[in-house]
Amino acid sequence: SLQDQFDNLEKHTQWGIDVLEKYIKFVKERTEIELSYAKQLRNLSKKYQPKKNSKEEEEYRYTSTRAFLATLNEMNDYAGQHEVISENMTSLITAELTRYVQELKQERKSHFHDGRKAQQHIETCWKQLEASKRRFERDCKEADRAQQYFEKMDADINVTKADVEKARQQAQLRHQMAEDSKAEYSSTLQKFNSEQHEHYYTHIPNIFQKIQEMEERRIVRIGESMKTFAEVDRQVIPIIGKCLDEITKAAESVDHKNDSQMVIEAFKSGFEPPGDVDFEDFTQPMKRTVSESSLSNSRGDGKSEPKFSSKSKGKLWPFIKKNKVL
Amino acid sequence: SLQDQFDNLEKHTQWGIDVLEKYIKFVKERTEIELSYAKQLRNLSKKYQPKKNSKEEEEYRYTSTRAFLATLNEMNDYAGQHEVISENMTSLITAELTRYVQELKQERKSHFHDGRKAQQHIETCWKQLEASKRRFERDCKEADRAQQYFEKMDADINVTKADVEKARQQAQLRHQMAEDSKAEYSSTLQKFNSEQHEHYYTHIPNIFQKIQEMEERRIVRIGESMKTFAEVDRQVIPIIGKCLDEITKAAESVDHKNDSQMVIEAFKSGFEPPGDVDFEDFTQPMKRTVSESSLSNSRGDGKSEPKFSSKSKGKLWPFIKKNKVL
């Protein structure tokens, strides 16, 4: 019946709203996952940042440590892009759809309200028609009874003409009343049939049409949101790609020659290798006699310690280039 | 001093290992974040899957619900790509670097062991030289004393020639011993100077060179890992892009006309709008007399209920196309 169809549509459109609300919830949970992911990446980046004004910070002079710092900073931007996903999904999908689902609920309510009103109206018309028909039926019976009474009086020779005339007038009156009821019933019936036609061929189809359009708009809307869902995600890809390019660039700028040169510069000392240790000749007292040997090496300048700690302008670097030495 | 330089290098290379281990830890934490993100996305996808053999599953006939299902499945693949990031970072970075850092620690240990051995060797040589010098000095003093004793005896007229001769021989012996010590000292000195030169110009520079090369390999290695870090991430972008394209495609396949047609098909009933209600004429008994009016509308077929529940082959769909009606 029509009522079954309304019930089915009421259930189906409620299901449509449930689907929409489920989708909103799904996207909301996705935004929370993105936020949590971004937060973890930001914390990771923060955790490995050099402590300000620390020795650690000074160590970030090397290309390798600078590349790590760049990686950390890019991871932070990378995290930011997942926040962008979250924010855009919230503003372009969940917020929009939440507003829309409220409108949709309102609109749905109004269509089914109109449906119920139309149903009630046609039922009221039906009751009026029934009442009109019953009145006509009753009046016909009354007219019939009055007619029979008149005929009975008319056939009775013991009845006065005045009484016959009274019964005839009564029968005519009743007949007229029945005719009036018939006219009213006929008019009510015509009105009902017209209303019923209007109901089934205009009002109800209009309501169904509006519900169908509402449904179709809901479907279009959820389709658009699903497209936005992918689009919001796709939009950050080039920026994430740039973050990765920056990490690659930083990694490629790692220069082992530069870094080891910096270590050499940092650790070069005023230290130079000690020269040869001189010969110390203790034979001077012996020189008083003619010695049988002569030590050519003897310069007797009294040095007795190798220059393990001597300071000099010529600096020895901890890393001596092999080719300089060999 | 050289020892300071070794100390500095020992500290610096330890710092290098710490940096490497810190980077390994950083990447490990990144892989954990990726895994947790992937797990959350997978759970999200799973949570919204239709329950098997449920009414819900049947509802996935509509293009809109199928698009949602496609979104869920693509999110699952999307999650899988973040697992790929995690797995590749683990195998290509953390596992590799963990192995490498063990080798590096071993190599570093061996270089500083060589350095200490060289230092100890040159100190031992220095001690030998000192001992040799002291012996020479002592022997010179002994020779000097023997010479003075001989000279004193030689000048003493009360001493026998035999005693003088004995003192002369003793002085000559002591002189010879001093000469021998001098020769040995001289030889030790030459050996020491040669060793010392070797130490400062060959052994130590070689060790420094090896440490420098080790350092440079470490820097190259961390740079390569940083590049891999970005590369592993970049590799999944096209696949994630494909997931997003599939979501877009599914969203674009949402067909509101198709879905509303399916609703119409599902809910169409055997119900058709009732026809006009017929006029019921209760005036038949009145017909027995000549009635003053005649009701043209009367067919008297006795119908008294509108076909609110009539069954018919001609079906009315809940959504009637407006153009069919108006």
UniProtKB/TrEMBL annotation, chains A, B:
GO biological process, one term: endocytosis
Keyword Transit peptide tagged: no
Coiled-coil region(s): 150-181
Pfam family, one: FCH
A molecular-function term among this protein's GO annotations: lipid binding
Domain F-BAR: 1-259
Keyword Mitochondrion: no
Region (Disordered) residue spans: 288-313
Domain of life assignment: Eukaryota
Alphabetical keyword list: Coiled coil, Lipid-binding
Leader sequence residues: none
Identification of the protein by name: FNBP1 protein
Classification lineage: Eukaryota, Metazoa, Chordata, Craniata, Vertebrata
